[in-house]
Amino acid sequence: MAMVRRRAAQAPALPPAAELPSVLLPDVIGAWAEGGQRRVLDLGPASGATLEVLAGGPLHLRVGDVLDELVAAVEAAADEEGGDVGAVVAERLAGAGDGYHLVLAWDLFSHLPAAGVAAAAARLARCLAPGGLLHAFVSTGAHVCRPPAAYALLAPDRLLRRAAGKPVAARVYHQHRLRALLPPLVLRRAVLLRHGMQELLLGLS
Length: 205
Hints:
With 205 residues, the chain is of the alpha/beta class. It has 6 helices and 11 strands. The strands form 3 sheets. The chain has a 6-stranded mixed sheet. Strands 1-8-7 form a 3-stranded antiparallel sheet. The longest helix is centred in the middle third of the chain and has 13 residues, at 67-79. It is globular.
């Protein structure tokens, strides 16, 4: 059975509402200045601010709002003897669609057991268009809030993170562990931000 190491926080905990920088998104969004319609899938709740930031050109934004239910269902399956995490992920993301240039999975992986990370990566890889990217944050600290935090883009290089839940132990995945769990996605870029948050860009192998 895969083990996930849990350790004490090495960075101050984020307050319930906090701004986070994005080092990686400005280049992604900036590259959309020319070209046709861009398709974006946001797995979190709807945000008018995110829509406004992304709508600098032709845009199709689909809001999944599935994180809370997906995390709860995956954990229930992982705790159940004989539970099929892959089937749960496939069911919860069955209507996600495909052909997306960008998938926003901002507060997903730190809440999932290893089997859930692998299943989610495999399913979300099928959502990406050729050259498409998945943007995510993972925590390197001891705790995350449950339900998952809600994120909104304030600018290409700045997000607002709102966490209204209670703290629970985070599943801490370092880069070497993520690389093993993510195929067919591969880690394109990773940046360590303040408060122990790591920003990731994933793409197809």
